[in-house]
């Protein structure tokens, strides 16, 4: 026993010594931290999926139905490998003898194909969901997000607490609760399902309304602190930042909003056209949410997600700004959010620290109100943390235009 205790003590002391040495080399520490995060997320997610008895959580594919007007319902079922209980639900059969009825009694081949495809798609969607995990995940969101909101309202957010909240979100809503549901999935999968089977899955629409309601109430709070991929990107971005919001490796990449939003719009339009025209999901092979279900990622998906996570070291939430369908829809709703970032120009000294520390271009646009279009704001509170006069608030206060020459006069202390 004494030998075991001594060995453990020696290992711990060695680890602490290694950590201390690494602290002297911040770039090495950043790279090591990045790989540790990626390995932990993927490794623990594999374990979590096995515990839940995970399903592929991939796009539903409905095979083309074999159909002929002269077929009986029974023959239709045999030709398409549909058991009698499925046929009963599809055609609302009252007795087993109804299986002998001809298909043309229920409509034309085209009508039956559309009806059957829609019902089979909805049945497959429902069967693919974990109806224990989904309500549990929403329940945890309803507990976690208000808790973060109340904590942040007390102006206690520091670099350490921010990373703690992001880490908790990744752990709870990603590693433990998995890839599905997600804000992005409510938009992406809804479009794809409609393109595949002209069907609308009611539970998904309810989830979308809940997510959009959260955006309406408090900006992009669900994206900021609850989205499992958004928070993972954010956490990786903070790994490459000092406490003074300076990059450790390389330079911070801040792309113009006109560019990122144009890419996002084009991507969603392309996705929609492909989904509605050919029933294909171009996001599914590279879906970043599969980082929490890595067993179902192909080589292309692994490469894309790997590059995305590396890019997150230098660019704030690249998937959210460039590709995410919910990010685009949420940005539109964000325009009428009740609680959002605003500036009190009576106390603002025009130092510009908030815009400088902001991980994107949004705070510069909010501060100066010189842009017709305000970019996405993820309510990360970085701007408020660095404001020396407490002039920035996250509240229901309306945004106002700064006084004329407010920034030209240089009101710096």
Could you characterize the architecture of this molecule?
There is one protein chain. The chain has 413 residues and is mainly alpha-helical. The chain folds into 3 domains: 73-128, no CATH class; 133-334, no CATH class; 340-395, Alpha-Beta Plaits, CATH 3.30.70. It is 58% helix and 2% strand. It contains 18 helices and 2 strands. Strands 1-2 form a two-stranded antiparallel ribbon. The chain is elongated, with a radius of gyration of 26 Å. The relative contact order is 0.10.
Key structural traits:
Alpha-Beta Plaits, 3 domains, 413 residues, 2 strands, 18 helices, two-stranded antiparallel sheet, 2% strand
Instruction: Report the span from N to C terminus.
Output: 63 Å
Helix proportion of residues, in percent? Answer: 55-70%
Number of helices: 18
> How many domains is the backbone divided into?
3
């Amino acid at each position: 026993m004494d030998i075991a205790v001594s060995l453990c003590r020696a290992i711990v002391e060695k680890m602490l010594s290694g950590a201390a040495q690494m602290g002297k080399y911040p770039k090495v520490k950043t790279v090591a931290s990045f790989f540790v995060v990626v390995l932990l997320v993927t490794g623990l997610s594999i374990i979590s999926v096995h515990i839940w008895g995970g399903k592929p959580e991939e796009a539903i594919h409905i095979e083309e139905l074999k159909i002929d007007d002269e077929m009986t319902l029974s023959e239709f079922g045999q030709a398409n490998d549909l058991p009698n209980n499925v046929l009963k639900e599809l055609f609302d059969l009252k007795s087993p003898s109804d299986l002998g009825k001809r298909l043309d009694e229920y409509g034309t081949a085209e009508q039956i194909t559309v009806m059957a495809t829609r019902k089979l798609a909805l049945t497959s969607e429902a069967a693919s969901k974990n109806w224990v995990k989904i309500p549990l995940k929403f329940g945890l969101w309803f507990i976690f997000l208000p808790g973060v909101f109340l904590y942040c309202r007390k102006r206690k957010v520091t670099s350490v607490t921010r990373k703690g909240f992001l880490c908790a979100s990744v752990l709870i809503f990603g590693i433990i609760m998995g890839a599905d549901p997600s804000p992005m999935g409510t938009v992406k999968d809804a479009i794809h399902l409609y393109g595949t089977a002209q069907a609308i899955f009611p539970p998904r629409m309810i989830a979308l309304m809940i997510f959009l309601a959260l955006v309406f109430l408090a900006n992009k709070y669900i994206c900021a602190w609850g989205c499992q991929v958004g928070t993972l990107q954010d956490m990786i971005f903070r790994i490459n930042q000092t406490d003074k919001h300076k990059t450790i490796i390389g330079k911070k990449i801040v792309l113009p909003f006109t560019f990122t939003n144009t890419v996002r719009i084009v991507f969603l339009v392309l996705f929609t056209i492909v989904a509605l025209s050919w029933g294909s999901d171009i996001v599914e092979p590279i879906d970043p949410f599969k980082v929490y279900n890595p067993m179902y990622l192909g080589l292309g998906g692994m490469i894309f997600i790997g590059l995305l996570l590396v890019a997150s070291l230098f660019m704030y939430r690249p998937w959210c700004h460039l590709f995410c369908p919910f990010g685009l829809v949420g940005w539109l709703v964000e325009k009428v959010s009740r609680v959002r970032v605003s500036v009190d120009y009576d106390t603002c000294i025009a130092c510009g620290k908030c815009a400088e520390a902001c991980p994107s271009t949004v705070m510069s646009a909010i501060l100066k109100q010189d842009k017709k279009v305000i970019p996405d704001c993820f309510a990360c509170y970085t701007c408020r943390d660095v404001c020396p006069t407490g002039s920035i608030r996250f509240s229901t206060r309306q945004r106002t235009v700064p006084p004329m020459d407010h920034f030209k006069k240089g009101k710096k202390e």
